[in-house]
Design goal:
single chain; 416 residues; D-Maltodextrin-Binding Protein, domain 2; globular
C-alpha cells in the first residue's frame, strides 16, 4: 500500500477507535449480527452524495422487495462523501454500511482498506445481468467492489428546429457542417463542446488509440496517438466558442448553437426552455482512422464497508439481491431518466422508446469506464493544461505534451 495511504489508514483507524468507544454513534444502524435472526430488525445505511430524488427511487423499490425480511435500507446524503468515507469508512458505529458513488473513486477507497469485495457477501450470479462495461467499472485489482446501478456517457444533443438535414455519421462530415454553419462574429455555432476539458475530449483521444492514463498508472499525454487526437480536436475547438461549460450551455439553451456535446445532467434544463431535443450516440460518429468516438462512462455503484460485510453478511446479501432487481433500473429510467446498468431492465417497452437512454445503451457497448485508480485524480490538471495550451494559447503540441507529461509523472510520484 502506498505510504501516504497507509498513513491515512492509520489515522482513520485511530478515529474509528476513539468514536467507537463513545457508544454515541447511531448512523451506522444496528450492528448486532445479521438478518439471520428475523426477530431483530436490521438497518442498513447507504451514504451518497448524489441526487436525493434518484436515491429515493432506489430506496423505495429496495425496501418494497425487503418488506418481509425485517431489513430497512436508508440512503443518507453526505456532502463531500470522499472526505466522509476517509473519516468514517472503518467506523462501525458512526460510519455507513454501504456507500453509493461514482466508480472513479473506487481505487482510493480500496487502498484505504475500508471496503470489502461485494463477493464477500453475494455470488457473481447476482450481477450477471449487468452490462459488462458497468461491471468492469466496479472492479479494482481483479476484485469486484461495486454493484453497478446506473451510468452516464456524453452524447451528441441537437436542436431539431435548428439542425439542417441529417446528423452526419463521420467526424469529417460533422466538421464540414460546422464550417458551413458557424459564424463566430455573429456568435452562432453549429456545435459547441468543452473542447479543453479532458472528459469531453476523451472520446477523440480514446478513438485515436491514445490515453490519458493506462491501467499501470502511466500517463499518456505525450504518446503519439494522444497528440494526434489533440491536434485533431483543435480544429473543432476553433469553431466551438470558448469551451466553458456555462458559455456553451447558455449558447445552446438560447438557440445560438444547433448542437452540444453533453450528458444527461443537461437534459432537464434544455427541456425547461422548450427545445425539441434530438440525441445521437457519440459512438455513431466515425473518425478518419475508421474507429468510432469512444467516450468515457461514469458508473454509479454501491459498495460495502468491510466492517459491515463481516457483521451483517446475511442482510447485505438480501440488500444486494434487491438492488440487482431489474425493477430498480426500470423505476430509475421511468422516474429519473437514468440509464440502468441491468440489461434486463431494457426489456421494458418504455425504456426501449427513450431516445436518450437508448443512445447511452448503445454507447455502453463501446465506452470505456473512467479509470478508477487513485492516480487518475492527479491527471485531470495536467491533461487540461495541455488542452488549454494547444487550443487556447496555440502552443506547439510536442513541446506542451512533453511538459505536461512530466508534470503528470511528478504528481504521480508524489503520491508514493
Amino acid at each position: 500500500m502506498k505510504k501516504k495511504l497507509a498513513v491515512l489508514l492509520c489515522a482513520v483507524m485511530s478515529i474509528g477507535m476513539m468514536t467507537g468507544c463513545s457508544g454515541l454513534g447511531t448512523e451506522g444502524g444496528s450492528t448486532d449480527g445479521t438478518a439471520g435472526n428475523m426477530s431483530d430488525k436490521t438497518d442498513i445505511s447507504i451514504w451518497h452524495d448524489g441526487d436525493e430524488a434518484i436515491m429515493k427511487v432506489i430506496e423505495s423499490q429496495v425496501n418494497a422487495d425487503l418488506s418481509e425480511e425485517n431489513i430497512t435500507v436508508s440512503f443518507e446524503k453526505k456532502s463531500g462523501l470522499t472526505d466522509q468515507i476517509k473519516l468514517y469508512g472503518s467506523d462501525e458505529y458512526n460510519g455507513p454500511d454501504m456507500y453509493m458513488y461514482a466508480h472513479d473513486s473506487l481505487g482510493t477507497f480500496v487502498e484505504m482498506g475500508v471496503l470489502a469485495p461485494i463477493t464477500d457477501v453475494v455470488s457473481e450470479d447476482v450481477y450477471q445481468d449487468m452490462l459488462p462495461m458497468t461491471v468492469e467499472a466496479g472492479k479494482y485489482k481483479g476484485e469486484q467492489y461495486l454493484l453497478p446501478i446506473y451510468y452516464e456517457t456524453l452524447l451528441f444533443m441537437y436542436n431539431k428546429e435548428l439542425w439542417e438535414g441529417d446528423v452526419p455519421s463521420t467526424t469529417e462530415e460533422l466538421y464540414e457542417y460546422m464550417t458551413a454553419h458557424t459564424d463566430t462574429d455573429a456568435g452562432t455555432y453549429a456545435l459547441v463542446n468543452q473542447h479543453s476539458t479532458a472528459y469531453n475530449v476523451a472520446p477523440v483521444i480514446n478513438g485515436f488509440g491514445g490515453y490519458i492514463i493506462d491501467e499501470n498508472a502511466t500517463p499518456g499525454l505525450n504518446e503519439e496517438k494522444t497528440k494526434k487526437a489533440i491536434e485533431y480536436n483543435k480544429k473543432f475547438a476553433e469553431l466551438e466558442a470558448d469551451g466553458d461549460y456555462n458559455t456553451i450551455t447558455t449558447l445552446f439553451n438560447e438557440g445560438k448553437a444547433a448542437a452540444i456535446i453533453g450528458g444527461p445532467w443537461m437534459v432537464s434544463g434544455i427541456k425547461d426552455v422548450g427545445i425539441d431535443l434530438g440525441i445521437k450516440a457519440l459512438t455513431e460518429f466515425t473518425l478518419p482512422n475508421g474507429n468510432s468516438l469512444v467516450p468515457y462512462s461514469g458508473v454509479q455503484g454501491i459498495g460495502v464497508m468491510k466492517h459491515s460485510a463481516e457483521s451483517k453478511k446475511d442482510a447485505l446479501e438480501k440488500v444486494y439481491t434487491a438492488l440487482a432487481d431489474p425493477a430498480v433500473g426500470v423505476d430509475l429510467a421511468e422516474q429519473s431518466n437514468c440509464a440502468p446498468a441491468n440489461q434486463a431492465s431494457y426489456d421494458e417497452e418504455m425504456i426501449a422508446g427513450n431516445e436518450m437512454i437508448t443512445a447511452m445503451r448503445s454507447t455502453a457497448e463501446v465506452a470505456i469506464p473512467m479509470p478508477n485508480i487513485p492516480e487518475m485524480s492527479v491527471m485531470w490538471g495536467p491533461a487540461e493544461s495541455l488542452l488549454a495550451a494547444v487550443n487556447k494559447s496555440g502552443e506547439d503540441i510536442n513541446t506542451a505534451a512533453d511538459q505536461y507529461q512530466q508534470e503528470a509523472e511528478t504528481a504521480i510520484a508524489d503520491m508514493q
